[in-house]
C-alpha cells in the first residue's frame, strides 16, 4: 500500500458505466481509504429482505433515485463506525444532486472531515449504453466484466474466485437510458458546483482501466 496522506476525501462522479466501480477498489487498496458505494449499501438492504430493502428494490430497478435522508443516514453511519474512514473516504454514487452535495458538505463539517478531490469520469453516452447492457458483476468484490469486451475466462464465473457473476436488474437499455437522462439533468450540474470550489478533476474514461487509474493517481499524487 502506498503511503497515504493523513486524510484524503474523494468523490467519484460520472454517468452510469463510466468506470467508477472499477476504479474505486483500486483507489481504496492503494491509499487505504473506505469505499462508500451507496448503491452497494442499498443493494445490501435489498438482499437482507428488510421492509426498507423491498421499498428500495423497485426504485433501483427503475433507475430512479432513493431519498436523500436514507443515503445520508447510511453514509453517516459508515463514517462513524468504519475504522478505514479515519484515513479518508471514496464516495461512489453520491452526491447525485446539488441538494445532496450541500447535505454532504454539512455532514463532513459535522464529522470534521475534508473533501479534497471530485474526480469526474468523462465519456460519451453511446459508449456507455454498450458497456452497461453487456456488464456482468461479481457481487462480493464489485469486479466487473463485459460479455464482449472483457469476458470472464469461464463464462458466468469470476476469474479470481470462480463464483457466479450476476447482471444487475437495471443494466438494460430502457433503465440505462433513464439513468443517463437523470444523470445529465440532476448530477452533471455538480461539475460546476465543485469547479467553483476548486475541487473538480476531469478524467478521460474512454481508455483502458489501467490508463484511467494512472490518470487518477496522477491527480492524487500531484495534489499531495
From TrEMBL:
The keyword Nucleotide-binding applies. PROSITE patterns: ADENYLATE_KINASE (PS00113). Gene3D superfamilies: P-loop containing nucleotide triphosphate hydrolases. Keywords: Kinase, Nucleotide-binding, Transferase. InterPro entries: Adenyl_kin_sub, Adenylat/UMP-CMP_kin, Adenylat_kinase_CS, Adenylate_kinase_lid-dom, P-loop_NTPase. Signal peptide: none annotated. It holds the Pfam family ADK_lid. GO terms for molecular function: AMP kinase activity; ATP binding. Residues 135-170 form the Adenylate kinase active site lid domain. Belongs to the adenylate kinase family. This is Adenylate kinase B. It comes from Thecamonas trahens ATCC 50062.
Amino acid at each position: 500500500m502506498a503511503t497515504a496522506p493523513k486524510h484524503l476525501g474523494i468523490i467519484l462522479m460520472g454517468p452510469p458505466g463510466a468506470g467508477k466501480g472499477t476504479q474505486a477498489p483500486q483507489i481504496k487498496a492503494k491509499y487505504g481509504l473506505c469505499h462508500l458505494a451507496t448503491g452497494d449499501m442499498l443493494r445490501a438492504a435489498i438482499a437482507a429482505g428488510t421492509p426498507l430493502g423491498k421499498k428500495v428494490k423497485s426504485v433501483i430497478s427503475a433507475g430512479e433515485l432513493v431519498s436523500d435522508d436514507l443515503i445520508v443516514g447510511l453514509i453517516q453511519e459508515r463514517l462513524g463506525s468504519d475504522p478505514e474512514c479515519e484515513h479518508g473516504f471514496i464516495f461512489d454514487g453520491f452526491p447525485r444532486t446539488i441538494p445532496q452535495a450541500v447535505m454532504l458538505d454539512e455532514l463532513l463539517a459535522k464529522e470534521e472531515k475534508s473533501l479534497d478531490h471530485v474526480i469526474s469520469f468523462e465519456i460519451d453516452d453511446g459508449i456507455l449504453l454498450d458497456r452497461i447492457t453487456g456488464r456482468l458483476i461479481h457481487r462480493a468484490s464489485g469486479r466487473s466484466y463485459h460479455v464482449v469486451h472483457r469476458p470472464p475466462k469461464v463464462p458466468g464465473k469470476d476469474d479470481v474466485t470462480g463464483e457466479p457473476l450476476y447482471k444487475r436488474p437495471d443494466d438494460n437499455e430502457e433503465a440505462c437510458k433513464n439513468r443517463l437522462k437523470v444523470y445529465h439533468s440532476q448530477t452533471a450540474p455538480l461539475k460546476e458546483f465543485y469547479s467553483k470550489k476548486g475541487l473538480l478533476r476531469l478524467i478521460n474514461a474512454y481508455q483502458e482501466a489501467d490508463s484511467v487509474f494512472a490518470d487518477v493517481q496522477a491527480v492524487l499524487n500531484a495534489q499531495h
